[in-house]
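Q: Convert this sequence to structure tokens.
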Amino acid sequence: MKQKLEILALVLGFFGLFGTIAVTALPTWKVSAFIGANLIVMEELWEGLWMACYRQINVKMQCKVYDSLLILPAELQAARGFMCVSIALVVSALIVTAFGIQRSNCCGDNMKSKNIVLAVGGCLYLISFLTTLIPVSWVSDSIIRQFYNPTVLDAQKREIGQAIFIGWGTSGVLLVTGIILLVRHSKRRSKEEDVYHDAYNMEEKSAIKEDSVYLPQTGSGLHKFQEYV
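A:
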């Protein structure tokens, strides 16, 4: 059961990797808000980190990569960097975790080294959770503030897209994965300390026996006197 938790953490880590890649690549961070009486609902606009897509009714969607990074708002510029860092962190966490599980051949039978590797993997997952949660929450906050801003035209208002919801779900998966690994590390460490403590007590008892001198019990003179009587 304990080793199954480590395998579960690996599986969740793969889901987290796929999620971060999907969130980074999807253009549905911002989508058209169909509000107002004059807005044509047959047109749809998507805005992502790398491209913008436009579609009309009975027309295939057309996407175009941004010509310059500087034309993007600050939250999308920061989201690009955060999501790229998230992908790198999740890949590193997967590799480190694979070396730190109990069934791996890394570090041989040295459980102390494996525990350290497992803890590093859990910390990487927690950092990737933050680097995924921050950009999606930042962009969603910007969308909501602009949506309720009366000075912004209805045609310029956007709604939260699917990529942001996937980003929230992915950040939750990364958080759970990191917690599982750190819990397993703490249990394995406490078990290792118990084994070390028992071994130390056994060595201490054996040392006491080696230092002690055996004194055979001899009968008293009164006892010998009673035997003759």
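The longest strand covers residues 51-56.
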